[in-house]
Prior knowledge:
The chain is of the alpha+beta class. Strand 19 and strand 20 (698-707) form a beta hairpin. It starts with a helix and ends in a 7-residue tail after the last strand. Mean pLDDT is 79; it is low at 340-391.
Amino acid sequence: xxxxxLAPIQGLIHLLAGSGKKYDLEKIERAFLYAEExxxxxxxxxxxxxxxxxxxxxxxxxxxxxxxxxxxAAFLHDTVEDNPDKTDVGKIKELFGEDVALLxxxxxxxxxxxxxxxxxTHIENIRKMLLAxxxxxxxxxxxxxxxxxxxxxxxxKKDEKRRATALExxxxxxxxxxxxxxxxxxxxLENYALQYLDPIGYKEIKDHIEEKYGRNVNFxxxxxxFVTEKLEQTKIDFILEGRVKTVYSVYRKMYNQNKSxxxxxxxxxxxxIVDTELDCYxxxxxIHEMYKSVPGRFKDYISTPxxxxxxxxxxxxxxxxxxxxxxxIRTREMHHVAEYGIAAHWKYKSGDKSTADIxxxxxxxxxxxxxxxxxxxxxxxxxxxKIDIVHDETFVFTPKGDVVALPQGATLIDxxxxxxxxxxxxxxxxxxxxxxAPIDSMPQNGDIVEVITSKASKGPSRDWxxxxxxxxxxxxIRQWFKKEKRAENITVGKAEIDKLFARHxxxxxxxxxxxxxATVGKRFxxxxxxxxxxxxxxxxxxxxxxxxxxxxxxxxxxxxxEKEITVIEPTIQSTKRHKSTGGVIVDGEEGCAVKFAKCCNxxxxxxxxxxITRGYGISIHxxxxxxxxNAYANEENVNRFVKAEWDTPSGGSYKSxxxxxxxxxxxxxxxxxxxxxxxxxxxKVDIVSISTKNIEDSTIMNMVISxxxxxxxxxxxxxxxxxxxxxxxxxxxxASSK
Length: 738
Ligand code: MN
């Protein structure tokens, strides 16, 4: 390779080679050469060749400890935008791989967002959008480095351009750097921005600082050495950090807190991080032994944490040359929390996102930045960096250029309701980037979304409830239905309930159903069944919420109808046997008419019992018939039960057939009824009566059939159950008549 052409990056290559980290130097050189070729002949406003800018950005990127691909992308970051006729992202991918191409593409896209004229309230969203749009956090890092070099060379630009860029830096990029834990980048960006936003204020403070402290350039270093020496004499484990306040932070303190320059005591500061709370106070004692403390400057945020959970001991002491400095003492854990504090700014607007999630993501980044300083294995580090930060949010623009944050997967309907309830309710269509789009489409990051409303709109559609993603939109749609459409809601809710009954095969009369619904509704503070139907209709209550309660209530009301089944022991004992019609032998009574109870339709072979009716002879029930146990519960009836049993078939006096009620539940299918009646005919079973009821896609058939005995009956049931699409066959016992 042409060593002469590589001369401008010799220093960088040398630095990388000696860094101890793994870099693909050949690839980096290729990226530089390609960038140089692309920018050939281009000049910066300063008159320098354009390539000086990408070189500087690459150097800053490398200085942050970023990897080979980031450095390559830094060299290439302006090639696509500046030379659309010479190269494109596809070409970059071909030459340098997918990662570099994605990074270049990401940095290029960010440029197209015009940020400087946005209102304060949208800036937070823009910051988030930048993170969301760059699928790879390295894009933001490169962008920050790009911005850093632009700020360093901003003096060559025209006045208005300077101001706009400085404002954008102050409002968007410096906070972004701060949130990513890039303190040094943040401070430099703020300082440069201030120079252009308030050049007079900046110079004043800078002069002041130089005048007052210029003689003590090594103050912090000396201080650190001295305190370290002292602390090492104790058994306490500690980390010591020192810092000097920047012009910007002095400026902010003076103007935001209205302090004079001499009131700024924390221009120099030491931070001591120890293991335990006790150590904190021990170290505090040592510091106060070493230096004279400034009265009224001690703050114990350990016993009284700040509202944002910040904990630390702060004290200001006077150093050897009469220079005050602040000392912050805290445990590792407290330091950790102080770092997490960053994440506190990242509250989601929509309440249904957990902030803990985001906190966790961001703390993770700040941890990474920490390890970066310790020269962690760069490949692993970068792999870990490829994470989604705010990828569960989508950022779109209104036609006016306001940024709206939506949860990922949100639709245009959600967007409309997030603008205003009225906009959502009157929505009839929408446009994405000027083109008509279905209202259930999901906009992408950076889309411009416009809602089309009409006064003639009849309001939201019920379908929207299942389309929208945000609870805000859902609640607003429900509110509309609740107010506007009670009758319709009741119909919709009723249908829902019918479906629920059918789905769970709950069989009962319409009245019973209303009673069950009303009972369940009362548990939600509703007066009548219609209220619950209404709530279901507008979505104020979900089916899932009442499903189990409805089923419980159904079970409960049915259990009470069945009561406990007890087999009654007749009290009348007699040796006399009475033969009667129908093949039943009854004890005791003689010459008495015998009939079979319609409620339970006993079949030969089943245990039976006789009940002496008032004036109608003896009626024969199944021994476990619920009506019998009900009657037995009444003391007056105790003497009316008689023992009964079936005559032997050899007696020949069985009736030829007995009626029996059954209920069949089937899935609707053409010719199923024909199959059922065919099966019955084959078994020589007569259908005495039949009625059917459709519920959605299933049918309930109530049938009275005639059969010989319990054995025959069981065979019929088994046969029916084996027919395809027959879900359930049950014998009906305990109907009304006796
Ligand atoms: Mn650039």
